[in-house]
Amino acid sequence: MHFSSLLVSAAATFGLSSAIITGISVPSTIKPGDGFNLYINTANYIQSVDDIAIAVGIAPGKGFPGALGQVTDSWYLGPEKSNVITRIPHWTGIPSTTPKGKVTYTAAVFSLFGAADAQTLTTFNVTVTIGDSTSTSYVTSKP
């Protein structure tokens, strides 16, 4: 009986996944006013991470390090989108008034790490082109 209790406990423990957000992927060219899927990229991690919310924005050129620029969207992630080891899609867009050219697309993710729920704000960014059509090819932020 004791062995089966240990087995059930171990199965429950190892059945829980722990994942961390590792970056974002967005189309390499985005048409102002178009919608597109932003993908939140994840990977296995050594402890649980409660991802709370994400905000995204664009800034002309290289932007300002650590800043979103013009905020274009924000949303709650919560338990359903935390510790998930698959890409997480989110339909979003940029304003139709966005001028064409190179921009920095940035995401800021607020998360709580481990048993102590240590809070972090992590930013990811990619350079994209604002152009005449939204591309099907994506660019991915680097860790």
UniProtKB/TrEMBL annotation:
Signal peptide: 1-19
Record InterPro entries: Nis1 (IPR045469)
Listed Pfam families: Nis1
Signal recorded as keyword: yes
Keyword annotations from UniProtKB, A to Z: Signal
Name of protein: Uncharacterized protein
Organism: Orbilia blumenaviensis
